[in-house]
Specification:
single chain, about 375 residues, alpha/beta, Aminopeptidase, 14 helices, 7 strands, about 15% strand, binds zinc ion
Length: about 375
């Protein structure tokens, strides 16, 4: 494989990514299905869809489910990871009891618009809660919401907001801050990491896709590709199996204990408790099948800068946006670079890691 091939796995638009995924899946002999969004559209007015590529028999008891684009713009990297796997020979020689299902652009609206959330500003990775029960409370987020989400994004408003956030962190501590912003919140529909009040379209389609394409699974390997946390260009694993149980130990065997048990992505702090993760949703949907897997991030920016870009991403939707088109374009491009950096070295490195990690998952599944 030449370096230019690796860069070719990345796309500059949702439509281009989708075309590359469909072509690579067809070449690899996959069965393609498409789930078109009924009303949301891309920035160019184009249609949006989740594309699914399946390999291996429908009644397979072992399966590997790989997702891209849960967080919209992070999907340009997840898509490249999936296309890289499709471009290997691995899917042509699967064991007879194994199925591989690739879901491309789980949140196609966010993917097409280079934003984290869905068409309703919902963080899909906080949306898999039980909506028939009382929704989780996050009072700490409510205390910092106004400072995280200022109406204006000027040097003066940012400095004032930062003063408030620094004071909050000074009195409550870094761990409480991490918990407040990461666990998800269900009260402020225009806020950050909003988990929604009902299942999103992408949530309901994920349920339908698992029911249709994984009807017989008993042992499921799972990867949800993300970007943002961790050292630049390096994979950071978030295994949400219970630490120490058989599924956690299995992930350590597949990918290395040092990777599964690393705290690199939180600068050494403890992992916050998350609500409503896709990981938990998939786990419930395939039960009583066993599942081993991880959310896998590729680091882009230092944590504080990545968080700043998420605030800009949210502000571009709900803030007092400036009239200056150059300023808007520069803010948008900063957000995009935080999701999927343009640096060729970063992209090549990520593809190499992604191929290795997915092949390790396949090997682990075969030995399970
Ligand atoms: Zn993410």
């Amino acid at each position: 494989m030449t370096p230019s091939d690796e860069l070719d796995y990345f796309a500059a638009s949702y439509a281009e990514a989708r075309g590359k995924f469909q072509l690579a899946a067809a070449k690899a002999g996959g069965q393609l299905s498409t789930y078109v969004h009924p009303d949301a559209a891309g920035p160019d007015g184009g249609s949006l869809a989740i594309d699914v590529a399946c390999f291996g028999p429908l009644d397979a008891v072992k399966a590997f489910l790989i997702l891209s684009g849960t967080h919209g713009g992070e999907g340009y990297t997840g898509s490249a990871a999936q296309i890289a796997l499709l471009s290997t020979s691995a899917l042509a020689c699967l064991p007879g009891d194994t199925r591989v299902v690739l879901m491309h652009a789980v949140n196609p609206y966010g993917f097409a618009h280079w934003t984290r959330t869905t068409e309703n500003n919902v963080d899909l990775n906080r949306n898999f809660v039980d909506f028939s029960a009382r929704l989780p409370r996050n009072d700490a987020y409510l205390q910092v919401h106004d400072a995280i989400c200022p109406r204006d994004w000027t040097d003066a408003s940012r400095a004032a907001a930062q003063g408030e956030l620094d004071a909050w962190i000074g009195s409550r501590g870094q761990q409480a801050w991490l918990q407040a912003i990461m666990m998800g919140q269900y009260d402020e529909p225009t806020g950050l990491n909003y988990g929604g009040r009902t299942p999103e379209w992408s949530h309901r389609k994920l349920e339908a896709i698992i029911a249709r394409h994984l009807p017989a699974v008993q042992k499921l390997a799972f990867i949800d590709w993300h970007t943002g946390l961790g050292q630049p260009g390096q994979p950071f694993f978030l295994c949400f199996n219970p630490q120490g149980d058989a599924s956690w130990e299995r992930a350590c065997t597949w990918w290395g204990r040092d990777r599964i048990e690393s705290r690199e992505g939180y600068a050494g702090a403890e992992r916050p408790r998350y609500n409503g993760l896709v990981f938990y949703g998939v786990q419930r949907l395939v039960a009583p099948a066993e599942m081993t897997g991880a959310v896998i991030e590729f680091g882009t920016l230092p944590v504080s800068e990545a968080f700043e870009q998420l605030r800009v991403d949210r502000w571009l939707k709900f803030g007092n946006t400036p009239d200056d088109p150059r300023l808007l374009a520069s803010l948008r491009s900063g957000v995009g670079d935080a999701f999927t950096p343009p640096d060729p070295g970063w992209r090549r490195g990520v593809v190499g890691h992604a191929i290795e990690i997915q092949l390790q998952g396949l090997a682990g599944l075969a030995a399970w």
